[in-house]
């Protein structure tokens, strides 16, 4: 036995001489990572992706990416004798005839929904805490691209079974491609290998779904994680945490154990969902037939906002020279708007840095209230997105709540211009109110609800000072001055180049920082500490004369 161990040890050192992994591991495994529950969101995205890879490989063994028509003869009797594509029939086989097939299919689908949800909530965490600021802007761009690619990958997978529900989705995509002016029809023929639906689409989509996109995602996730390691993780403000240190636990053994355990929890929950909750029962929809549509058909949740945008658009069309139709009703919501939204998403870190003029490195996270405009922009975008998702399900909502679908469409058309700005204003005011509360907490302590009556009859409210931990968190706020507009000419009378642009930028910057409530200065804190921690001499004397003691840990605040 000891000989085997010795030989194995020798083999490892020989391997290590050729590929010096141990020194690399030694240097990095003790790296410190900060701790917070919200840092688990990125992990959920990562583990869901691993589950997708594992279950996806299992599905490839039986799935037949072919649109060749066959007559079904499997064990799901209601469809026996029906004409369908091999893709649809093989998905039925996976569901009813392959051992564990339905379970793995359902785990794959649930993992896809969790993957997209985890990515999005992870993105919100990054956004609201300002974790995308320098030096992590590029990692934000990688993340944003992964959302877009994940969305395409999910749509591709959802379309593979060639059932009536997914076929309707593919038909919509064909329509969107056709709506692109000039090249639309050519592009549609190129993608589908001829008229819709043709025979080539599912095999092409299959290569896209199981090879091309997973490969790209794998590379991007690898790069994303390497960059996180390289930049080090940001941390939330707290006692002893600064922009230049990291307070937390070492990667090995603490995080390796935690992350390993968490992977099994995510896998367990996904497997439980796959085992207990039906998802995408394609046998109930039937095979895709181009002239049929199922009532109440809904895409997976992450596509809902696109569908909502499409459904809200008025029926605008232009016919050029009496023969070329431009379908604005499809082109704008399904091609132009998504392009603009993705562009803004990817550019956000750079836009914010331009408006604030803040190009410094940030390793300490912002509290959302301390950056009211950013937080308000985030909530505004979420409300915009939410309205579109609701409209994407307007037929189902109309039937469930006995409403008219037209009412819902008009609610969306008007609401989309009114609700997001209201959400912006309300959030901004809310953040500023929280800033004011923080300032009050530092200067006057917490209202204890205890009222003290002084012997001469006056009532004072007792305020307890906040703990040092809370103080450290509140004091982490940075008060940044807005950018000033340069003078029209310099001291030699030379006109400032690009004056108009610079004035605009200064205006935006002022609007961005707007009514920021400055945190108390050191002098104000000193004054408050001096003033607040003891009762006035005459009050103490009064209490003592009455045979009472002033509460020593409490701070009265009647002055
Ligand atoms: C496949 C999808 C993704 C995976 C597997 C993933 C994974 C992770 C993990 C494990 C972390 C460290 C833990 C944490 O902070 O949550 C992280 C951090 C980060 N992620 Fe992602 N992420 C994904 C998508 C995204 C998206 C969509 C964005 C933004 C648009 C993004 C931007 C970032 C940034 C900027 C950090 C650094 C955060 C910091 O240091 O505080 N990621 N990601
Ligand atoms: C981000 C990664 C992925 C996402 C979001 C995703 C999503 C999906 C979805 C939603 C379906 C429809 C499932 C259903 O029938 O209800 C599907 C089907 C499928 N996926 Fe994926 N998938 C991913 C990665 C993979 C990988 C890596 C493979 C293979 C290596 C794979 C192989 C398949 C196959 C063969 C099907 C068709 C079988 C079926 O529908 O049951 N997937 N995928």
Automatic annotation (TrEMBL):
Residues 11-237 form the Cytochrome b/b6 N-terminal region profile domain. Residues 523-559 are annotated as: Disordered. Residues 527-547 have a biased composition (Basic and acidic residues). InterPro entries: Cyt_b/b6_N, Cytb/b6-like_sf, Di-haem_cyt_TM. The chain crosses the membrane at residues 44-63, 109-128, 140-160, 172-194, 206-230, 251-279, 330-355, 376-401, 407-427. Coiled coil: none annotated. The keyword Membrane applies. Keywords: Membrane, Transmembrane, Transmembrane helix. Its cofactor is heme. PANTHER family: CYTOCHROME B. This is Cytochrome bc1 complex cytochrome b subunit.
């Amino acid at each position: 036995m000891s000989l085997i161990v010795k030989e194995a040890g020798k083999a490892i050192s020989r391997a290590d001489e050729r590929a010096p992994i141990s020194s690399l591991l030694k240097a990095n495994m003790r790296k410190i990572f900060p701790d917070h529950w919200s840092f688990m969101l990125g992990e959920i995205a990562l583990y869901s992706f691993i589950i997708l890879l594992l279950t996806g490989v299992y599905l490839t063994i039986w799935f037949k990416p072919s649109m060749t028509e066959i007559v079904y003869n499997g064990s799901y009797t209601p469809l026996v004798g029906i004409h369908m594509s091999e893709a649809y029939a093989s998905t039925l086989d996976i569901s009813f005839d392959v051992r564990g097939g339905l379970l793995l299919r359902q785990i794959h689908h649930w993992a896809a929904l969790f993957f997209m949800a985890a990515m999005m909530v992870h993105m919100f965490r990054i956004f609201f805490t300002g974790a995308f600021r320098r030096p992590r802007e590029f990692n934000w761009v990688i993340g944003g691209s992964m959302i877009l690619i994940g969305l395409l990958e999910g749509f591709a997978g959802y379309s593979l079974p060639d059932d009536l529900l997914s076929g309707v989705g593919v038909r919509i995509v064909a329509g969107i491609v056709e709506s692109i002016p000039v090249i639309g029809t050519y592009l549609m023929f190129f993608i589908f290998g001829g008229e819709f639906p043709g025979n080539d689409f599912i095999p092409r989509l299959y290569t896209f779904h199981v090879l091309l996109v997973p490969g790209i995602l794998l590379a991007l996730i690898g790069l994303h994680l390497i960059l996180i390691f390289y930049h080090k993780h940001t941390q939330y403000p707290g006692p002893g945490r600064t922009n230049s240190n990291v307070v937390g636990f070492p990667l090995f053994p603490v995080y390796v154990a935690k992350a390993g355990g968490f992977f099994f929890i995510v896998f367990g929950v996904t497997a439980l969902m796959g085992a207990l909750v039906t998802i995408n029962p394609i046998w109930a929809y039937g095979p895709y037939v181009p002239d049929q549509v199922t009532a109440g058909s809904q895409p997976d949740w992450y596509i809902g906002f696109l569908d909502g945008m499409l459904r809200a658009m008025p029926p605008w069309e232009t016919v050029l020279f009496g023969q070329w139709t431009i379908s604005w009703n499809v082109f704008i919501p399904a091609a132009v708007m998504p392009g603009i939204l993705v562009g803004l998403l990817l550019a956000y870190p750079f836009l914010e840095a331009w408006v604030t003029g803040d190009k410094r490195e940030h390793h300490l996270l912002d509290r959302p209230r301390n950056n009211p405009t950013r937080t308000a922009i985030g909530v505004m975008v979420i409300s915009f997105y939410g309205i579109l998702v609701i409209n994407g399900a307007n037929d189902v909502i109309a039937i469930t709540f006995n409403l008219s679908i037209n009412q819902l469409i008009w609610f969306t058309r008007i609401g989309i211009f009114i609700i997001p700005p209201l959400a912006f204003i309300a959030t901004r005011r809310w953040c500023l109110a929280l800033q004011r509360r923080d300032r009050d907490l530092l200067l006057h302590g917490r209202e204890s609800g205890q009222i003290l009556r002084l012997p001469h009859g006056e009532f004072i409210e007792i305020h307890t000072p906040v703990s040092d931990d809370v103080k450290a968190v509140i004091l982490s706020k940075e008060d940044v001055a807005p950018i000033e507009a340069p003078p029209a000419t310099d001291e030699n009378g030379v006109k400032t180049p690009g004056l108009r642009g610079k004035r605009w930028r200064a205006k935006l910057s002022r609007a961005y920082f707007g009514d920021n409530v400055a945190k108390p200065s050191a002098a104000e804190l000193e004054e408050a500490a001096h003033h607040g921690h003891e009762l006035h001499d005459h009050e103490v004397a009064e209490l003592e004369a009455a045979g009472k003691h002033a509460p020593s840990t409490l701070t009265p605040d009647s002055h």
